[in-house]
């Protein structure tokens, strides 16, 4: 198969590495890709949200399957354009991608399908939103209704924090169009996990689960980010619990989407909270998560490309999804200043030495080559340093050993990725 992978992050590097192992792969093109994906296929200078450019590239290269990585091209209608051009695409239509493109749409689907989720209200102006949080009190969660690259959610522990989030999004326009409307939710309490499945119509096939670490600082301090690291599988949330969560949070959504005439086909990423009352939905995303994908895909033993081809055909019968019984971890190395204004241009060295350690994988995200050919930082989240092990403790030690070998003075990272999961394992062992 000739495949076009869309995107340029660590997620796409991990997806490219998984697809490169498939005996069905004839040629892999990545648009726009990064220096890491360049070692696995052909990078193409087409932006991920340039739908017309992507279709032209797919036609030029006789692409059999388009695999979207990020959400933006899906919300912009990439799958619809592929269908019109007669090209298979492993992603949802624009209408179905509204599950990620609009928080309000997701909440309406949940209410219609009886999916447990936090109580919510939508606001199109700042004044009534401010009045609501003053009457409701804290904690609350303030969400930009539209796409905000993982930065549109504020867990406000005080009324003042909620007021600031509303003002930033709705009055000051810090998130642009995405924050012109907001959804304000009750704050769910529990452990947050990420659940993934391949979907086609009303059928969902479990991929697996991971647990992200959203905040920038050790001990879950500081602002939310796109994700600073992940572990897979989450402690206490095994395959049986994952399947049960699909029955409650995903399959009813698929039936409701089909009933509306906008069936969902693609990868669903359900962010959920494991509360005392059972799992409740936080949000849907219509693609692999990042950094969860990096942690998940290094455990994958079956053929990712075959599964994605089945998604594109809308036929998941007999889809084979197998993961090793090992634990895995991803540790994000970000640039100083992230998630605000990251310091770019710093030279990154010793990636080869880090990647040569046993069971270590280093995926590139915000990187590029400078005029001298040096690898430099070119974004906020720059590297995903990942490892597997027979235990989470072993995987964690390997990943942090690799982090320690990387020479990048401008790099920052959390030192406690996986510690919460290890503590939970220890607690379970004592009970």
UniProtKB/TrEMBL annotation:
Record-linked Pfam families: GARS_A, GARS_C, GARS_N
Cofactor(s) of this protein: Mg(2+); Mn(2+)
E.C. no: 6.3.4.13
Keyword DNA repair included in the entry's annotation: no
Record pathway: Purine metabolism; IMP biosynthesis via de novo pathway; N(1)-(5-phospho-D-ribosyl)glycinamide from 5-phospho-alpha-D-ribose 1-diphosphate: step 2/2
EC class name: ligase
InterPro entries xrefs: ATP-grasp, ATP_grasp_subdomain_1, PreATP-grasp_dom_sf, PRibGlycinamid_synth_ATP-grasp, PRibGlycinamide_synth, PRibGlycinamide_synth_C-dom, PRibGlycinamide_synth_C_sf, PRibGlycinamide_synth_CS
Keyword terms, alphabetized: ATP-binding, Ligase, Nucleotide-binding, Purine biosynthesis
Keyword Nucleotide-binding among record annotations: yes
Biological-process GO terms, alphabetical: 'de novo' IMP biosynthetic process; purine nucleobase biosynthetic process
Catalytic activity: 5-phospho-beta-D-ribosylamine + glycine + ATP = N(1)-(5-phospho-beta-D-ribosyl)glycinamide + ADP + phosphate + H(+)
One of the record's GO molecular function terms: metal ion binding
UniProt family annotation: Belongs to the GARS family.
HAMAP family, sorted: GARS
Protein name: Phosphoribosylamine--glycine ligase
Organism: Komagataeibacter xylinus
Lineage start: Bacteria, Pseudomonadati, Pseudomonadota, Alphaproteobacteria, Acetobacterales
